Amino acid sequence: MRADVHRLASSVALTAALFAISGCSDGDVRPPAPTSSQASDDPTTAPPCDSTALEPEPAEPEVAVLDPVRAGDLDRTIAVAAVRHLAGVVGPREATGPAYRQAAGWVSRRLGRLGYDVVRQRVDVPAGESWGVAVPAGTSVNVVATPPGLEPGDPHLVVGAHLDTVPQAPGAEDNASGVGVLLAVAEAVAQRRTRLPVVLVAFGAEEPRGPGDADHHYGSRRYVALMGPRERRALRAMVSLDRVGVGDRVPIGSATASDPVQRSLLVAAGRAGVPVVADPEERSSDHWSFVRDGLPAARLGSTPYAGYHSAGDVPEVVSPDQLGRVGRLVLEWLAPK
């Protein structure tokens, strides 16, 4: 009983002290409001007690304002390290084999750690012949990294690069170079603002499994086939990074005579100070899967080199300077205007 009385007394005393601090009389928890004459003539009159005055103001929610991405934000060492890992450690990555699955897992983890929502799209691939080597039927995957919160109908851009190789090539230039730049771009834009959200895709099964146009680009064709009507309308442009680590100028390829995506890349290259060459009627990469389905797309890369589709396609073939040029161009293209 005495303990209860003591607690009650302490509570009353604390309440009185709080009201005293706020300007209220400790003898009257809620005194009547003063008359207008008291309020103006008697400076000693205590103001009315309002318990809400003791509550802290709600904090304004903090809204993160991201810096805009710029060409100079590229860390080319990310691209160089990816080329060395994929071509020097993993090696040849035939689309249906265990080495490809290892590479896809590695890319998925890298993108996931950057905060993207990462999914793998199954790609069914037929048996055939890839650059003179018989390859079995099986499954490959596209690794798709989406910024958190992006809805299918939201305007966006796609940057992609194929992850597979022909069976006999470690594929440093074709196409660890493209995947390396893709990862460097992913890192640069993960915490920076772009003109539109960017979806990043490592495509499976780009390399040929036969002589015809329908015998390759399986991963990008699958990606396009899975796009719903809202997503198709929302896609503003796609860029394929394919063989981007050789030479001292960046080829910008277009599948059509007058291509707005190619033009926008040429303009971005001028702003970034990157030397380029326009490459017309270019259809031999994953951008073609988009273009032939009525979607805007272009390609970066395609300089000829001696190790193409051979065991000589090793990391030493790839120029870090050229990786840097391509990465800066892509970031300038993605930058807010």
From TrEMBL:
InterPro entries: M28_fam, Peptidase_M28. Residues 27-60 are annotated as: Disordered. It comes from the Bacteria. Residues 142-333 form the Peptidase M28 domain. SUPFAM superfamilies: Zn-dependent exopeptidases. This is M28 family metallopeptidase. It comes from Nocardioides furvisabuli. The lineage of its organism: Bacteria, Bacillati, Actinomycetota, Actinomycetes, Propionibacteriales.
